[in-house]
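input
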Amino acid sequence: MGAKMRFYTFHNQEEWTESESLDDQLQQRRRLMERWASASQDFRDTYQARVSLPETALDYPLPLFTRIRRSPKHFFCIAPVDRERHATNYTRLVKLLILLYTSLRRGGKSHPMSFEPDPYPQIPAVFPDHTRSSPAPEALIPQYCLESADFRYISMTQTGTVLFPRFYNKIFTVIDQEALTTGQLIMLELHVNGQIKDYTRLRPWHAGEIMMYHNVQGWPLAEMIDWSMRARFLPRNNPLDLDQPLVDIIDSAQQKRELDIHGFTRELLTAQIEVFVPGYLELERQGLEVQYDLANLMTGDDIRAYNYMIPPGDPARRQAPSGQ
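output
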């Protein structure tokens, strides 16, 4: 199959027209994909008959890569979260993102999205077009790549089939409308053709351990959501009420032993949240959560290796993030 994909590469090279316009380059990439996918099989077979194999399957001319993401996101929001038209959704999104900073067990954990590309790994890519309806999770990845004709992550076989080989065995985290209603975001893995392979919903503080075992030790999602392992990775995985005040959500879960951050009083939780999301709690007290800017969420090296930075017992022992 790899050799067959290379003929699509040569089709791109032969049909490419030089242009300095980024919009024109984007449209050319889209036209090339559409032509290859819709062409007759005889047309595609001509490349196999007359083109020698390149040294690499990614031997594209440089303009084909212009205006393509250097590193793709694996973290998406597909629910409408425009602040003006969907204020409730936006405020719930903010809380869900803040709750991702909590982890099931203290010590040695990083933010579950710490492997996402900078500058804002902790913020999902928001799907912009909701004029018809939000994309379903199973259609998200194909739409995400096909919209920009991203040749680094799309392969087309000699028969015109679209594949996504570099997304195979990668965990994607998705926030949809149900996640904003129940507080349970989606984690999924894909088959090479972009269809969903494994899928689960989980509370945000379960994401940290799952992503650590996946990114560091290579565990597949299926192994961690299997019924034999759910007690470890997804204990007490019930819906959350995201309309409650943020400290109440965390403190209630702690009191019910659903979240293992024992020793954190409400005062310490308040101080800790201020480290993660400076200024949020004051806006919440005023009923102005919708004004919170996601860019103010703690980011950078501090989300790649953090413990709870305010130790239990003494708020004065606060450990400020390295960027402060």
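quick obs: Residues 263 and 313 are 7 Å apart (CA to CA).
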